[in-house]
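Case 394 in the screening queue. Each case pairs one protein sequence with one candidate compound; here the compound is adenosine-5'-diphosphate. For every case the pipeline is the same: read the inputs, emit a complex structure as tokens, and attach any notable structural observations.

Predict complex for case 394.
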Amino acid sequence: MDVLVLNCGSSSVKFAVIDPVSSQEEVSGIAQRLGAPEASLDWKRHGKKDTRPTPRAGHEEALRAIGNLLNELGLTDELIGVGHRVVHGGSKFSGSMAITPEVIAMVEECIPLGPLHNPPNLVGIRVAQELFPGLPQVGVFDTAFHQTMPPVAYTYPVPHEWLEAHSVRRYGFHGTSHRFVAKQALHLTGLSPEKHRLVTAHLGNGCSCAAVRDGKSVDTTMGLTPLEGVMMGTRSGSVDPAIIDHVAKALGKPEREILDALNKKSGLLGVSGLSNDMRTIEDAAARGHERARLAFDIFCYVLAKSLAALVVPLGHLDALVFTGGIGENSVAVRARTVEHLGFLGLTIDPHANATHGRSQNGRITEEIRPQALVVPTNEELMIAQDTAEIARRR
Ligand code: ADP
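Case 394 output:
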């Protein structure tokens, strides 16, 4: 009993076949460099890696190549459904949904909010419906978990017509990851599923934080788009929006290009001038590279300020959860960030932090309340579990 999980991005398609009960992954992989001569399909099965060239394959060809591969591996007979990661569900989805023509129409309506992501997500749905006509298809939305935010958290202090006429509000992203790690954190800490106050920090190439009260997201750092909030690999996070007009005039460039630079040339990359990758930043900072050190310092400082702000809607903090590539692996980012947050009663346990809290259920701080802990995320498993549950109900 397996689920095919599809994550169609702008230039790649990630896929995995997962048993939602045992969490066992039968195969996982990525079709990448789509559209380029060197496009390829790369996968891993039982620990063994393999690849095949798919020159100039676009999304459709890549999805068909994935379908063929699953057939060759004999994995299609066990499938009970296909789960699709959909990035922007606007205000239309507060949970995962069986894909119907109405759901597809609503995802299409959200294209202006997620112009880079929703179109490839829709291609994934259409081609998967063709390839697996009898199987239930389920949409799992990055924005859905944050739909429980109250108006005070999601309304921007801008002319109200922008919200009413153009849906300008905070939506938040990484919802599947925040939901997954919040749930895991309850198992690990023994906190009550009915009563808890968590702050979750998803720190990957994109970074966002969320305040989770009694299983519900009550605030988050990303906004209308994934540009807002904390500093990221190439994204600035929150900055004064007047920067756009100022720099556009100074450089004689269109505002669109400046916005593009805030998305693709800022963050760790912009400040360091070196890399968007935290490992490179940490290595260079250790060797005395001044701007890498500054990038690291800003990253942790801004992160800590945002995490502290998320305690406001919670009133108090039971646990702070680190996840994502940086959150799960960077001993230095966690140590510095927790140091900034000492006033909340968090004190790092250096030994536990160095071993990612593995010997004490993820906990990397000295006290039990509040505590900081490391929880590896698994968005694919969450998508597989939602898909299996919805498929079962049909
Ligand atoms: P994505 O958002 O693309 O899924 P990941 O969650 O894989 O990204 O996170 C990528 C980030 O994790 C990169 O900045 C990378 O440098 C960082 N990272 C991975 N391993 C380590 C490590 N050992 N130390 C510090 N940073 C790490």
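Case 394 observations:
- The first strand starts at residue 2 and ends at 8.
- The mean pLDDT is 97.
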